[in-house]
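Format is chain and fold; as here:
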Amino acid sequence: MHRPPPSRLAAALCLLGLFAAVGVRADDAPPPPVGSPAFCLFELAAAGEKRVWINLGIVQYVEAGAGEVKIVYGGGNLGSGHEARVPAKTYEESEELLRRLRQTAQNCKGNPP
């Protein structure tokens, strides 16, 4: 008979039980990972009163120019994707946004520079 693999919740509970059994306090436990390539949020400029983030894990491509940076993400079949346009006065401003995008993605991956 085939058994499904244990869930992450079950694994976390087992780990907590192990820590409790050996007397490790929560303060001594290793910190959780800071990010994931699959869910990596990058904050864009606020839209009115709302804060806006995009998930870098689903970005398909980025266009950078002197007038704006266009980030295309979440695309599927039949043009179901979205885009975020971030104004940039100069090409250097676009390059700075690209640098921040790369840095955020690298941090989510767990590979700091």
The chain has two helices and five strands. The first helix runs from residue 8 to 22. The beta strands are 41-47, 50-55, 59-64, 68-73, 82-87.
